[in-house]
Design brief:
It is a single chain. The chain starts with a helix and ends in a 7-residue tail after the last strand. α2 runs parallel beside α5. The longest helix has 55 residues. With 234 residues, it is of the alpha+beta class. The chain has a four-stranded antiparallel beta sheet. Helices cover 59% and strands 7% of the residues.
Length: 234
């Protein structure tokens, strides 16, 4: 089956679920890949599915890239200000008291926060790309080498526990203290990044907040990531 045969089904799923962002669409792509893995499709079918996904996603990027970039820039500035006004002044002030920085006024604190927020937000795409790399590796293990996933069958483990080589490929751009944890069985998985960039991701990619651990009505969050429908509540 050629990749063109898969494209209409993928686009229909995107329309049905109103997947407007890249991460919302990514969940549909991952569900399709997982479905193929469970149905033991041929390697040619899986390759054609991935080609179809690339074509569909590239069409979205061409049509909406420029608009979303401008919209995102405006949203990020507004989000940073709202987060600051919602109480971030306290967390930034704690940095002052520990000697990490200095500020003489609320305006200074506001600037410190927005500067730090802007530094974090540009790193979120690197974290998301690495999350995709991890999920692709897990799907491959589920299909070809399930024993590797044994440590993560019942609890979350660091990616190094199941794939040390992949753990070494974590982008060097990510903040110190960044970790990725995984829970996976033979058909489902959840992959989460920890808190270091979650505060930025909660505004740029709110659909990626882990619904079990991250509450949208709080400042900051502990985890964001990707998962199959069967792993939502893990």
């Amino acid at each position: 089956m050629t990749s063109e045969r898969f494209e209409p089904a993928i686009r229909n799923a995107i329309a049905k679920h109103r997947a407007e962002t890249r991460e919302q669409r990514e969940r549909i792509y991952q569900a399709a890949r997982a479905s193929f893995q469970r149905s033991d499709r041929s390697s040619e079918d899986i390759e054609n599915l991935n080609l179809a996904i690339e074509k569909v996603e590239s069409s979205f990027e061409r049509n909406t890239g420029a608009f979303l970039k401008k919209q995102k820039q405006r949203n990020l500035v507004n989000a940073a200000i709202l987060l600051f006004l919602g109480g971030v002044i306290g967390s930034v002030a704690s940095l002052i008291f520990t000697g990490s920085t200095t500020a003489d006024s609320e305006d200074d604190l506001k600037k410190i926060f927005i500067d730090r927020y802007n530094k974090d937000i540009v790193l979120v795409p690197d974290a998301i790309e690495y999350l995709r790399e991890i999920t692709d590796a897990i799907v491959d293990h589920q299909r070809n080498n399930r024993d590797i996933l044994t440590p993560s069958n019942k609890t979350f483990v660091t990616i190094a526990k199941i794939d040390p080589d992949l753990a070494k490929r974590m982008p060097k751009t990510l903040p110190q203290g960044t970790q990725f944890i995984v829970k996976a069985d033979h058909k489902d998985f959840k992959v989460l990044a920890n808190w270091t960039l979650c505060g930025a991701a909660m505004f740029s990619n709110p659909e990626m907040l882990d619904p079990v651990r991250s509450k949208a009505d709080r400042i900051g969050c502990p985890n964001f990531g990707m998962w199959t429908p069967g792993a939502v509540k893990w």
